[in-house]
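New to this. Please check this record:
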Amino acid sequence: MGRALSLYTLYQIARISAPTVLEAMVGRARREDHDRRLHDFARRVVDRAGIQLTVIGADEVPLERAFVYMSNHQSHMDIPVLYATVPSPTLRMVAKRELFRIPGFGRAMRAASFIEVDRADRARAVASLKRASELIESGVSVWIAPEGSRTRDGSLGALKKGGFHLARDTGTPIVPVALSGTYRVLPPGSTAIQPGMPVKVVFGAPIPVDGRATSDLIDEVSRFLAAHVEPL
């Protein structure tokens, strides 16, 4: 069952990647089409896996502006869960360079304006944040996992500064998001999705960034995650 769910997820990824790449090649890419495919993909995967979703606070997030969403990172299943629950109509994520090397999928991510970050190359990392700034200015919300990588044991890691600089430099409020349960849906090192698992997503109130020190913002998001991410 678990491996069948994983294959289904791969099929759904291919299902949205192919038309995205094709449209980009012929110059017909449209943001609203990417949005629709991403949300449809997320809902199909969440529903097929039988994930028991509890969502708190999403209806308190305004829809009329872009935000920088910041969540903890438990699993690759964070992606469909967030796309199924984030209230903002347009959301793109900052993703590590390795994901963009996957044939087909990487091209689709670029075509849909996902943001590639190379943490080993400072110049590339700065360019990635500039690209993210341009997206935010055009009304696109950006999702960042400031821990930088998935947890290996369920614990929260230290938050890196890059995303907080992005929010401050663009004057974009941060929406903290606590994810609990995706770790069990697809544990680290596993390729089999576990069906029927409970997952809880808690959205915090937008955090204003104007006049705030980066360290203060990091502390506030860290406190929110520590208070709302449930222990394994």
